[in-house]
Amino acid sequence: RVDINNDKKIGAKEMQRWIMEKTDEHFQEAVEENKMHFRAVDPDGDGHVSWDEYKVKFLASKGFNEKEIAEKIKNNEELKIDEETQEVLDNLKDRWYQADNPPPDLLLNEEEFLSFLHPEHSRGMLKFMVKEIIRDLDQDGDKKLTLSEFISLPVGTVENQQAQDIDDDWVKDRRKEFEEVIDANHDGIVTMEELEEYMDPMNEYNALNEAKQMIAVADENQNHHLELEEILKYSEYFTGSKLMDYARNVHEEF
To answer: Which stretches make up the EF-hand domain (predicted)?
Structure first.
């Protein structure tokens, strides 16, 4: 299914097309799945879900007694929740706030709920992530990134030559990514718009970049293509990639 020209090997463009197809497939599935999830957490059917309503359903899915939890939340009583579940809840609450479009009312409609469950669908969430990245890397406060700012991410402590080589390779890859992919107009500056375009899951350059990386992992004969034997030899890598499971991968990234 990936080898469109039937030459018994897979090139970067074939891999890119397949990843894009899987991405689109995931987006359609997510929209359908969201409708079902929304109905489940909006039992009164008023078209809005409050954080407390969602919290009750979430904790019920984790084995807590739904009626007890609902009663305690209603009466502002303390919930006895283990640390791990509480941490997940805190992260979900952050995402809830981010998905709540202006004017914020802490109620999510179906579209906002989609952004909450699937942040990769949301332009607002994408903008939020871009702002976070700019905030972390932008050293002079101009809301743009230069190459030196972009490659200033901490890459670990260099303790020996091998670590130094890994760091050098990392810088080389990031430089190439900045100059050839993210900086669309090649002016040496990456704007928030360029970064947002680059981070969009539907960006074909991302898919091509990923395809090339996947090929590089298993391309033992260095012909820039993958033969069946190479894919089988590195099967664990491929079954964990976007080639197979776009949904899981994109969630982990976001």
So the answer is: 29-64, 125-160, 170-205
Where do the structural domains in the chain lie, given as residue ranges? Answer: 9-40+121-252, 49-108
Residue written as tokens 């709540």? 100
| pLDDT tens digits for range 10-27 | 999 999 999 899 888 888
pTM exceeding the 0.90 threshold for the entire prediction: no
Nearest of 70, 62, 64 to residue 43 by alpha carbon: 70
